[in-house]
Design goal:
The complex is a heterodimer of chains A (257) and B (307).
Chain A lengths: L1 H14 L4 H22 L9 H38 L3 H5 L5 H37 L10 H14 L1 H13 L4 H20 L1 H4 L7 H4 L12 H24 L5
Chain B lengths: L2 E12 L2 E7 L2 E3 L3 E5 L6 H8 L7 E6 L2 E2 L11 E4 L11 H12 L3 H11 L14 H12 L6 E5 L7 H18 L2 E5 L3 H7 L2 E5 L5 E6 H7 L2 E7 L2 H10 L5 E2 L4 E6 L1 H13 L4 E7 L3 H9 L3 H4 L2
Parallel strand pairs in B: 4-9, 4-10, 7-8, 8-9
Antiparallel strand pairs in B: 1-2, 1-3, 1-5, 5-6, 10-11, 12-14, 12-15, 13-14
Classes of the chains: A mainly alpha (257), B alpha/beta (307).
């Protein structure tokens, strides 16, 4: 079992060379880093009294954008690009003519969507802290000694785990429906509903809606004691449970792809 | 005789569209089986079914003597395939494409090097596939299918887009795989002349998915009478002699033809002409070409030439 799994993983890694999914994984956190810098340097009022509050204040924009907008969109694009590598070159038939269980082929697609998102999460976490340090250096603030690593990493890890339900759903959609229009259309309609739900208030509808799970790990601010673990666990476990079902469904629909 | 591929009463198609009707195909071990048929006959459908990519409506498939159902995906370890046009990752190099296939087939690095040498793709294997011509893609596709010298090679239109050099390399590869490694090769193709040079066995389907013939190349030749081609110095005398001895002669500008001739006919005609003082310049029993045999068996020329 192991050699086949390794063969699939290493083959998928080769496919990523010079590919759109890798460019996306780099571009998304880089774009948000630029936006974050522009926003920070555009600020007029800075609360210097408490470094912890200042950190929360400065990181807030980036994390809200990352978890609320960039992450769901990035998952959609990554899943579409990864699936289209096979759709565009009509690779499914060639892949399934190889001695590999089909469910593993789909499993590896989900895994790589998750790994690329993980790399982007890591890049964003580091660059968001770097952005604040650049800002503090430019403004003569001494924030380097008070980096709230624990809270930042908790948010990052919980946000990442919460994304797994979306990773599975979007990989499923992207493999099932070739091209960009259908999977992206469904995704952005779902995201729009998520924005409306957030507008009405999570107290009314809860945090369970898959497309608001990532932002739900950060309900008010970086350090709030609100239960941010539940959305992460829900997203993670739901993704884990759904992945075998998605792989089975895609395997039996092979004639369609 | 041992059969690597056996299908029994295979019926199937796509959705509600029936393509195959009760197909019973037998491909002997170690043969190069030329699989012929007009467009839409169901050749690709058969190959997809043999690879487990398409479920038959009914019937049974046996590969290497065992039912395909239940043997997937392990049995695919013994099979190399090229289905329709080669499926290649455009953004990767030829070597990277080969490397992916090599890893997924669980083969060693030297197997990829061998395939590169055998198909003569070493010159451009380092370039991205998006820069490849159709022929280069086809060669790479065949190289991927032939990776690791599989026991059974299923090739669907592998000669499309190959130039003269490519065709020769391809023929050599098939013969090497068959003769040195004992591989069984099923090739569907429209290029009958090329197939005629390598195929040991032939299967012919008609345009509604029926198998009209399967057997050796010689058995197929028997289906169509051979022609005796004669060139002489005194045409009128020769015509008179042959007519008086009961032969029906098809007179052409340069030669005569006696249809349905055998070697015995040739001996008799030669004796008659010589005894009657007619000088014989050329006398030969000619085998029908594969194209002629195909047309004879399917009974349709149009279907073939609409491709």
């Amino acid at each position: 079992m192991m050699p086949t799994a390794w063969a699939l993983v290493s083959s998928e890694a080769i496919k990523l060379r010079r590919s759109a999914p890798v460019r996306l994984a780099i571009a998304a956190p880089a774009l948000l880093f630029l936006l974050e810098i522009l926003t920070m340097f555009g600020r007029r009022h800075i609360n210097l009294t408490d470094p912890a509050i200042l950190w929360r204040d400065l990181l807030s924009f980036g994390w809200i954008m990352w978890l609320g907008l960039f992450t769901p969109a990035l998952i959609v694009f990554e899943a579409i690009c990864l699936a289209n590598m096979e759709h565009n070159s009509k690779q499914w038939k060639q892949l399934f003519a190889l001695p590999i269980p089909r469910w593993r082929v789909f499993g590896v697609k989900m895994l790589f969507c998750g790994l690329l998102l993980g790399a982007s999460f890591l890049a964003f976490t580091v660059t968001s802290v770097g952005g604040v340090l650049m800002f503090s250096g430019a403004r003569g603030l001494n924030l380097a000694s008070a980096i709230p690593w624990r809270e930042i990493l908790l948010t990052a890890i919980r946000g990442y785990v919460a994304c797994w339900l979306l990773i599975v759903v979007h990989t499923w959609l992207s493999v099932r429906f070739p091209g960009f229009a259908v999977p992206a259309g469904i995704a952005f309609a779902a995201m729009l509903i998520g924005v409306l739900l957030l507008g009405v208030g999570r107290d009314v509808f809860g945090w369970w809606y898959p497309w608001i799970l990532p932002i739900s790990v950060r309900p008010e601010g970086l350090y709030d004691s609100h239960n941010t673990l539940a959305p992460a666990l829900f997203g993670g476990f739901a993704g884990l449970l759904l992945a075998p079902l998605a792989s089975w469904d895609l395997g039996r629909r092979v004639e369609d792809v | 005789m041992e059969f690597v591929i056996e299908t029994e009463g295979l019926t199937g198609g796509y959705g509600i569209k029936m393509v195959l009707h009760n197909l019973s195909l037998r491909v002997p071990r170690g043969s190069i089986f030329g699989f012929l048929g007009p467009n839409g006959a169901g050749k690709t459908t058969v190959i997809r079914m043999l690879l487990g990519l398409l479920q038959p409506f009914s019937g049974e498939i046996r590969l290497f003597g065992r039912p395909l159902r239940g043997a997937l995906p392990k049995v695919l370890r013994r099979i190399g395939s090229l289905i329709e046009q080669p499926s290649l990752y455009e953004h990767l190099t030829g070597r990277e494409n080969l490397e992916i296939a090599r890893r997924l087939k669980g083969l060693e690095r030297r197997d990829a090097d061998r395939a590169i040498d055998a198909l003569g793709v070493g010159e451009y294997v380092g370039n991205q596939v998006c820069e490849y011509s159709r022929g280069m893609r086809q060669r790479l596709g065949v190289a991927i299918a032939a990776l690791g010298n599989p026991e059974l090679l299923l090739l669907d239109e592998p000669m499309n887009g190959l130039d003269a050099g490519g065709l020769q390399t391809f023929r050599t590869l098939l013969q090497t795989l068959q003769q040195e490694y004992g591989a069984t090769i099923l090739v569907s193709s429209h290029q009958l002349e090329e197939l005629d040079l390598v195929a040991t066995h032939i299967g012919i389907m008609n345009d509604v998915g029926d198998l009209l013939f399967q057997g050796t190349r010689q058995e197929l030749s028997v289906r169509v009478p051979q022609e005796l081609v004669i060139q002489v110095d005194r045409r009128d005398d020769a015509l008179r002699v042959l007519a008086s001895s009961g032969h029906t002669v098809d007179s052409r500008r340069e030669h005569f033809i006696i249809h349905g001739a055998t070697n015995e006919t040739a001996r008799e005609v030669n004796r008659l002409l010589v005894e009657n003082g007619v000088g014989v310049h050329h006398l030969a029993v000619e085998l029908a070409t594969l194209e002629a045999l195909f047309v004879k068996v399917t009974g349709t020329v149009e279907a073939w030439h609409t491709k």
